[in-house]
Amino acid sequence: MEDRYAGGRTEREGNVIWALAELTEGGRVLDLACGWGRISRYLTDRGADVVGVDINETMLEAARRNAPKATFVAADMRELPDLGTFDAVIIWWSSFGFFDDGTDQLILRKLRENLRPGGKLLVEHANAAQFFIEAAANPKGKTTAQRIGDDVMVDTRRLSDDGRRVVGNRQICRNSRVNDMPYDMRLFSGSEIEYWLAQAGYTDVAVLDRGGDPLTWQSYGFVASGTAPAGDISS
Questions:
Q1: Per residue in 82-100, pLDDT tens?
Q2: pLDDT at residue 145 above 50?
Q3: Cα separations (Å) of 200 from 5, 112, 149, 210, 226?
Q4: What is the pLDDT of residues 216-227, one digit of tens each?
Q5: Rounded Cα gap, residues 207 and 189, in angstroms
Q6: Per DSSP, what are the bridge partners of residue 224?
Q7: What is the CA radius of gyration of the chain?
Q8: What letter does residue 113 receive in the DSSP assignment?
Q9: Exposure pattern of 199-219 as b/e (b: 16+ CB <10 Å)?
Q10: Fewer Cβ within 10 Å of end Cβ, the chain: N or C?
Q11: In this structure, are strands 177-186 and 71-74 parallel, antiparallel, or unpaired?
Q12: pLDDT recorded at residue 9
């Protein structure tokens, strides 16, 4: 599959995932909120056994075309079916933080059940500092558009009044069809997501920028990682 993002973005991000999750050929990966299968395709091409989960059927239709070697399941991340255990669970492209804090924290704790002892959770997300800068320059909100392959994505967003969330709508224009995806997404600093993962029971928690380098306020996004501990720990 041709990288629908310019500059080899999928390969760069896939390499970061492979390294941080310590994956090997044949490793099982749960791609949670997998979208149209961009990362699933990269990982299966490298030999991983990938299960992609998304709640959006339009996205899953595209994912099944884009990543035919992966398995895709329609489900809500709050109530996942029994999918077995994995070597890694990834939540990529700012696909976490869409519920209230208690629900989001419960999702992190429950995902431990999907990981083998020593398995890795990776959460990629936008860096809150960059949205504060964006909101200062665009107090009424911002609209961006980009072409991704044959599709056009139009994103309109603004910072919530309390400064803790981004509220917006994403439109995917594909084959003369427009799919609206409104969202209300929690923002995190690196230290806050690090605290959440530790509170959820993960060990060896670390937060880096999207390229695997140290996180700074100038980083547009981050990757938070944690390890599922051996043995049972209370939720």
A1: 999 999 999 999 999 999 9
A2: yes
A3: 33, 8, 38, 22, 10
A4: 999 999 999 999
A5: 10
A6: 123, 207
A7: 17
A8: G
A9: ebebeebebbbbeeeebeeeb
A10: C
A11: unpaired
A12: 87
pLDDT, tens digit (0-9, with 9 covering 90-100), for 37-64: 999 999 999 999 999 999 999 889 999 9
Tokens of 129: 């500092």
Q: What is the token pair recorded at 21?
A: 């999750």
Nearest to 38 by CA among 80, 83, 4, 84: 4
Question: Beta strand 203-209 with 177-186: parallel, antiparallel or unpaired?
Answer: unpaired
Burial of 105 (0-12, 13-18, 19+ CB in 10 A): middle
Q: What is the spatial distance between Cα 119 and Cα 111, in angstroms, rounded to a whole number?
A: 11
Closest by alpha carbon to 231, among 86, 116, 84?
116
The token pair that represents 159 in the structure block: 């910072």
- How high is the pLDDT of residue 6? 52
Enter the tokens of residue 148: 């991704």
Look at residue 211 and tell me whether its pLDDT is greater than 80. Answer: yes
